[in-house]
Amino acid sequence: MDQSGTGKMMPKRYGEAGKEQYLAEYIRYRRLNGTKKSRPPRLKPLDTSKKSNADSDDKKQNTSKGDSTKTDDTAAKKREEERLKQEQEEKRRRDGDDGRNTNGDDKRREEDDGRKKEEDERRKREEDERRKREEDERRKREEDERRKREEDERKKKEADEKRKKDEDERRTWEKAEIINKEDEEKKRRESEERKRRRGEEKRLAEERNRREEERRRRDKERRRREEEDKRKLAREEEERKRKEAEDRRRKGEQRRKAEEERRREEEERRGRRQVDEAGKRKPQSQSASNGDGNNPGRDGDGVRSLDRNPKKTYSEKVTEVEQADDFQDFWKWIHNGKKDDFGNS
Question: Where is the region Disordered (predicted)?
Fold first, then answer.
C-alpha cells in the first residue's frame, strides 16, 4: 500500500485514477468531523467494465498496484469489525453491562445490533449511492474531458493541417511570385538589351551616315575647289593670254605707229626727192602707194600680203597680220563693250 500525505493507508484498488477522488473524500470527511481521529469512509470499488480510456491507461500503468487490492479490502473489513466491537464495548460500559448473557440484555443487544446493522446498511447504501453518483459524475466529467480533449486535439489537428496547408500555399505562392519576378526581371533585362542594341545599331548607322555624308560633302567641296581652281586657272590663263595679246597689240600698235611715222617720213623724204628729181626728169606714170609693181610688198589697201613674200616665217606672218589696220579694227570691235567667252569685257 502507498503512503499518502494524510498518514492513512490508502487502498490501491482505485489505481492512480481514483487517488485524487479518495483524497478529496478524505478531506471532506475530516472537515465534517473536525479533528476526530477516525478512518475515512471506505470508497466503493470502481466499475472496471465502464472505465474510460484514461482509466484503462492508468490501470495498464499501475498493474503492480492493483495486485494488493484484495489485501486492502481484507484489512478494511477487519478495521470495520474492530471499530464495531469497540463501539459495542463502549455502549455496554455506558449501560452498566457487566458482560453477563441475560435474556433481556441479549434481546436488547440483538435489537441494538439490528438497528445498528440497519443503520450501517442504510449508511452504506447512501454512501454507495453517493459514491455511485460521484463515480457517474466523475465518469461523465472524464468523458466530457475526454471528448473535449479529443475535440481539442481534432481542432488542433485541423488547425495544424490548415496551417500546414496555408503554409504550403504561401510557399507555393512565394515560389510562384519569385519565379514571376525572375521572369519579369529576365524579360526586362532582355527588353533593355534589345533597346540598347537597337540604340547602338541606330547610333552606328547614324555615325556611318554622318561619316558618309561628311565624305560626300568633302568630296563635293573638293570637286568644287577643283572646279574653282580650274576656273581660276582658266581665268588666270585667259587673263594672261589677254594681257599678252594686249601687250602684243600695244607693241604692234607702237610698231605700227612707228612704222607709219617712219613710212610717212620716208614718203615725205621720197616726195621731196621726187619733187627734187621731177625738176630734173619727168614724173612717174604710177604712184608708189597704189600697190603696183613699184611697191610689190603692199596690196591695194596698204595691208602687207602674206603670199607676196614667201620667205617670211609663220610667226612673222601672224605678227604682220596682227599689226595690219583691218585686224586692229576687228580687235577693237570685238572688245568695244562686248564680252569674250571667258566673261572679260
Answer: 1-20, 31-326
